[in-house]
From TrEMBL:
Sequence intervals crossing the membrane: 62-81, 93-112, 124-142, 154-173, 179-198
Gene3D superfamilies: NAD(P)-binding Rossmann-like Domain
Domain Glutamate/phenylalanine/leucine/valine/L-tryptophan dehydrogenase C-terminal: from-to ranges: 7-58
UniProt-listed InterPro entries: EmrE-like, Glu/Leu/Phe/Val/Trp_DH_C, NAD(P)-bd_dom_sf
Record key words, sorted: Membrane, Oxidoreductase, Transmembrane, Transmembrane helix
Superkingdom of the organism of origin: Bacteria
UniProt keyword Acetylation present: no
Entry protein name: Glutamate/phenylalanine/leucine/valine/L-tryptophan dehydrogenase C-terminal domain-containing protein
Pfam families, sorted: ELFV_dehydrog
Length: 219
């Protein structure tokens, strides 16, 4: 069984390209990636489409919120665990976890009877960039962050992913964010800047008396 997933953009499959679809199953991760007419054509051809309302849980879904909460708890637990062992570099565990996830995905594909799809040269290049550079670099930095910052600070800085992700999708994929996305991004950046300034002020206030006592002792 050949399947594909549609993410990021709307109206990816329309009347113009629906005839080129060879997949037997389609997973709608993005919101509205298939037009209504193309969806009807796929249904006539017997193509199974898991709609976005189920695949991405839809806005306000309890299932989607539950997954998001579990992911947040897992990341917070990871940061806290790393912070309790500041002298231990847990980065090598990322390799093991990646291998376990890859093995689980491979076994799931075999169990479902999915056919092996060989990527094109361009797709292989993007996969190499994603799997050999972007994901390892990002998760390694995340894993090492708690060695130098508190778990709470690392979690707050991860909010920048929402802002930068929105900008990357806008610049590279041409998907224009909603105005509220810019408002939310401004709130995230403003909150982090305000926290940084307040922390810096508290550090200066705390170091002031310490410097004064040191100067008095030297006299």
């Amino acid at each position: 069984m050949c399947w594909c997933s549609l993410a990021a953009l709307e109206n990816q499959i329309d009347d113009a390209n629906v005839g080129q679809v060879r997949a037997k199953s389609i997973l709608e991760i993005a919101n509205g990636p298939i037009t209504a007419n193309a969806d009807a054509t796929l249904e006539e051809r017997g193509v199974t489409v898991l709609p976005d309302v189920l695949a991405n849980a839809g806005p306000g879904s309890w299932l989607g919120n539950a997954f998001a909460v579990m992911a947040a708890l897992a990341m917070a637990s990871n940061f806290t665990l790393c912070r309790t062992r500041p002298g231990v570099d847990m980065t090598p565990m990322l390799v093991l976890s990646g291998l376990l996830v890859a093995a689980a995905a491979w076994l799931a594909g075999l169990a479902a009877g999915d056919a092996v799809v060989v990527p094109t040269a361009a797709q292989a290049g993007y996969l190499a960039l994603l799997c050999l550079v972007l994901l390892p670099l990002g998760f390694t930095l995340i894993q090492r962050g708690p060695l130098y910052l508190t778990a709470a600070d690392v979690s707050l800085l991860m909010l920048l992913e929402t802002v930068t992700g929105t900008l990357w999708v806008w610049w590279l994929l041409g998907e224009t964010p909603a105005p509220l996305a810019f408002v939310g991004g401004a709130l995230v950046v403003g909150t982090l800047m305000t926290k940084g300034l307040l922390d810096r002020r508290r550090e200066r206030a705390a170091s002031g008396p310490a410097r004064g006592e040191a100067a008095g002792d030297s006299c």
